[in-house]
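FYI - complex with 6-O-phosphoryl inosine monophosphate, inputs then prediction.
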Amino acid sequence: MPGIVLVGAQWGDEGKGKITDLIASDFDFVTRFQGGNNAGHTVIHGDKRLALHLIPSGIMYPNITPLIGNGCVIDPRVLIEEMDMLEREGFSTERLLVSGNAHLIMPYHLALDAESERRLGDSEIGTTRRGIGPAYQDKAARSGIRVQDLLDEHIFRLKVKTALIEKNDLLVKVYGADAFDAEAVCDEYLAYAPRIVPHITESSQLLNEALRRQKWVLFEGAQGTLLDIDHGTYPFVTSSSCTAGGAAIGSGVGPTAINKVLGIAKAYITRVGSGPFPTELFDETGVTLGSVGSEFGTTTGRPRRCGWYDAVIVKYAAEVNGLTDLCITKLDVLSGLETIKICVAYEHEGRRYTTVPGSQTAFHHARPVYEEMPGWQTDITGCRDFEELPRAARDYIARIEELAGVSVSLIAVGPERNQTITRGWSIRYQEGGHVEGDRAKGSRVEGRRTEGGRTEGGHVGGRHVEGNL
Ligand code: GDP
Ligand code: IMO
Ligand code: MG
């Protein structure tokens, strides 16, 4: 019953969509467990380039069941638009499942997100303004509207009317904004119901049953470790648990269902929105990384802030997520640089930090301590084997590995799926519920791979098992 979690190890946009698409064919389920359409996951599938915000990046594979878990917040208008986009592109969304316990993003959440950011002025978080924070606020306040409420018109209208008594007061009296008409909101949302209701499921039961039947589940994280509500650079974070522990809470499986945690980090680092960023570059190199790496937000189009690879952050991500593997993406973007810097520590008021400082003030003012390594001048986008990389690139990866204390088992050298170096990535399942990395090339999954990319038969619990894993 391998459950594997894929998480961002930085501030988001690490290339989670590409890597999910790369490894998804080995799985039976791909499930999102937190966040909403603040996410923007770019997937190049065949000749199509798709930006997915809400639907799991495995949707393109006909053998996979995509699931939006209970930990997510769903804007139904966006969900329907995304389903329509996928259908237009030739991908069926019939198999898509949505947890009835996921919360709905309501129109007043979008308004409150915009108003509270406006009120913060220069101190704004720089949210995506998709209503994420206010939707999670209502979830915690127990006044949220859930997907399953769409099944009962009476309850739905009652809950929305009750919520709006308070929300309208807040909007009108505190923010000086317009009030919402409860009937109009209900009519709009209940009109979405026929499109969404056929997809509603009980995600916890479904996944646990699937795991019992030896199905393979990939938990696809959104955002990144440093945007996590508990472990990120609070308050400049999103409102959900983006770290690996969130996969259990946000989908209803126990932590023992998770056998492996794959962290995704860029070979440099970016951030969208406000907040501390010790290695941020304000010079020509920063501009180069942004333009070569096409660093513009998939969701909002905002230019991403760029900086040198921060090993302190990735080591921290390795700890809070319990990473078993690391994937380094966008290594190709560094080609052509004379030298490359890695931040190995911070300094603040005479103190040296080799892990993320506990104090927000220290993190804000942390000065990066760099190691400098030689760059490489060749194009590496065609490399498919670790040994084909120039010596300097191999040394860079080796240093990243050493500083993180985690094996770099995947390296991306371009946005296309095949522009990837597999260096020991394996989801071979071992006796005792342990999934072990395997440095042998070409043995990602033991068992036969069929035409559709599905694995038939394999080693489960040390025994060879026939049939679909
Ligand atoms: P996500 O939110 O983590 O899924 O990442 P995004 O999709 O928002 O941003 C990553 C961007 O980098 C996308 O445009 C990807 O197509 C692109 N990308 C992913 N891996 C690589 C890589 O190895 N090299 C290059 N040049 N681009 C990549
Ligand atoms: P993916 O999944 C990068 C950032 C926003 C803002 C903060 C809070 O594509 O990696 P929110 O709208 O969530 O309340 O905004 O979080 N943010 C992201 N940054 N990638 C994302 O998702 C993000 N989702 C939210 O820019 O700083
Ligand atoms: Mg993104």
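The CA atoms of residues 357 and 363 lie 6 Å apart. Residues 8, 12-13, 38-41, 125-128, 130, 132-133, 222-224, 227, 238-239, 272-273, 298 surround 6-O-phosphoryl inosine monophosphate (ligand 2) (CB under 6 Å).
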